[in-house]
Design goal:
With 214 residues, the chain is of the alpha/beta class. It has 2 domains: 95 residues, eubacterium ventriosum atcc fold, CATH 2.60.480.10; 104 residues, no CATH class. It is elongated and about 90 Å long.
């Protein structure tokens, strides 16, 4: 009775090693520890077209599970392989960027300033569009019989409630997470990454470039 090797590859794997092994790119399990240890150290690929630039991803390649099966059967021809993961997957070779802390701080500060003023402008534009100030003034006059000067308890509670709602929605206070649930930005980033990976895989399959670096 032949041994069974279970393999599982994620849709996208990042590595900092230019030469990658089967054990580094995916999960494998086998009852025979000798087979497992041998295959984990088997070289899968060496990246050649390394690009140096501002992006941390220096090179990427789309692999088919059939390439992995061919590699394994070249060593153990009678080994039965059960794939529990993706049929096609991407391996990204990344370099560890060396940035000046001052430059990183300036980049973060610039993004924060842009987000702050952009968000403030959007909120003001929305309030102006729906005439929030006029509505608060009319409501204040109706409840108190006095004219609103624009700085009443209504504006104060509205501002506090808006701030609390933003904090609750984005699930962060500074660098502290309010709950273990992913934030809306994290969810959108994961969806974006999944769409990018699917597009790269489909493009490689359609153009027949599985064995070329992207």
């Amino acid at each position: 009775m032949s041994e069974i090797l279970y393999v599982k590859f994620e849709k996208n794997t990042r590595t900092y090693n230019q030469t990658i092994t089967l054990g580094e790119t995916g999960e494998m399990q086998c009852a025979d520890s000798g087979i497992l240890n041998r295959l984990k150290t088997e070289k899968l690929y060496t990246f050649q077209q390394v690009k140096k630039g501002r992006h941390s991803c220096a090179a990427r390649r789309v692999f088919s599970i059939m390439e992995v099966v061919e590699k394994i059967h070249g060593i153990y021809p009678n080994l039965e392989i059960q794939n529990l993961g993706e049929q096609n997957f991407i391996v990204e070779y990344s370099t560890k960027p060396k940035e000046n802390p001052a430059v990183t701080f300036l980049k973060v500060a610039l993004v924060c300033v842009i987000c702050f003023f952009g968000s403030a402008f959007s909120i003001m534009a929305f309030n102006n569009d729906v005439s929030t100030v006029d509505m608060f003034g009319q409501f204040y006059t109706l409840m108190t019989g006095q004219e609103s000067d624009g700085f009443t308890i209504l504006e104060l509670t509205y501002s506090l409630g808006l701030s609390a709602g933003i904090i609750a929605f984005f699930n962060h206070i500074g660098g502290r997470r309010l709950s273990k649930e992913p934030t809306p930005i994290e969810v959108e980033m994961r969806l974006y990454e999944d769409d990018v990976n699917t597009t790269l895989i489909n493009t490689a399959s359609r153009n027949g470039i599985h064995k070329k670096e992207l």
